[in-house]
Amino acid sequence: MKVLNGKNDINEAIEYIKNGKLVIFPTETVYGIGANVFDEEAVSSIFKMKGRKQDNPLIVHISDLNMLNDLVEEVGEIEQNLINEFWPGPLTIIFPKTNLIPDIVTCGLDTVGIRMPSNEIANKLIKQSELPIAAPSANISGKPSGTCIEDIKNEFINEDIIMIDGGDSKIGLESTVIKVENNQIIILRPGYITERDLSNYGKVKISPNILKEKFEEIQKVESPGMKYKHYAPNCRCELVLGENDNEIRKKILDEIGHGVEENNEAKIVVLYKYNEPDIKINDVRYICMGKDDEEISKNIYHLLRNLDKINPDIVYIESVEKTGLGIAIFNRLIRACEYNII
Ligand code: TXA
Ligand code: MG
């Protein structure tokens, strides 16, 4: 593994991509681990290095619209409007794919997810290698996505790979993934671009699985990635829901109270949102996720990874409201908690 500073020239990374090797690069959402989309062997090594299941398709990253022509059969009117508004940026659009894209990229699907990142280093890497780059998030499958080089380094330290350091990811959660069907925009994975942002361009439907609070209720999966264990720290995490913040905080106090009766040695962490709780329990570690949803989205993966360093017996996480960017945060938190809710 070798780290390049993204402020300097990145020619070595460009050569790597061209030669069928993998490069970890920054995007505005999270870091990606990328390969030349047309090189089946290189793409297959992404799956191996991440331990990723072979039925979870990759997003293809482009740097300009000319690249799109080779990759997709057609661009509908709504898709074109979305492209005009949101590219470059954190929106992945599902298109019917051409035969130029190897099956391994899309896991045999006849559609492909494409996005044009706004991050300058990502853009330079794609443009100068003159190749679309297939890239999932840079993390071992099941773990939180990588949003800074320090977190990612540990996971890929023994690999023949170049990492380009572009600082902390600005957004911190992966792109919004959508497809257009019967003139409806369907959100398959919520992200920074919200239902409201999209609603100017057509009727928007949020795939029902996204808002479900019970794993048993999750049925047909439209975006294969949403069905796996995801973003989970090694310790037990509970997502605490409530009508309002007072109720959430009261529930946490009650839970800690019961827990202490059973085992007063337990190492407990509370991840709280926005402002500090008025009542805190001795020996419990309180960590702020962020003062608003934007900050939470930026911090959350790093915080989840840090839990493994603290190694608590239990973590209580205050849920956010399921509106706006909160939908994307909720979606990640409930998976990080493996659907344990209080
Ligand atoms: O922000 C992001 O999207 C980051 C950066 C690196 O661009 N990438 C990322 O990739 O999050 P990944 O592989 O971790 O997530 C891709 C998601 C998965 O949930 C996958 O199932 C879905 O996109 N996806 C990809 N192609 C699809 C397709 N043809 N149909 C439906 N869902 C698709
Ligand atoms: Mg991922």
Secondary structure elements and pairings:
Blueprint: E1 2-5, H1 11-18, E2 22-25, E3 32-36, H2 40-50, E4 59-61, H3 66-71, H4 77-86, E5 91-96, H5 103-106, E6 111-115, H6 120-129, E7 133-134, H7 149-156, E8 161-165, E9 176-181, E10 184-189, H8 195-198, E11 203-206, E12 236-240, H9 245-262, E13 268-272, E14 285-288, H10 293-310, E15 314-318, H11 326-336
Parallel strand pairs: 1-8, 2-8, 4-6, 5-9, 10-11, 12-15, 13-14, 13-15
Antiparallel strand pairs: 2-3, 3-7, 4-7, 5-6, 9-10
Helix pairs in contact: 1-6, 10-11
The structure holds threonylcarbamoyladenylate and magnesium ion.
String of helices and strands: EHEEHEHHEHEHEHEEEHEEHEEHEH
Name the bound molecules. threonylcarbamoyladenylate, magnesium ion
Average pLDDT for all residues: 93
**Radius of gyration based on Cα positions:** 20 Å
Question: Approximately what portion of the residues adopt beta-strand conformation?
Answer: 15-25%
Strand order of the largest sheet: 1-8-2-3-7-4-6-5-9-10-11
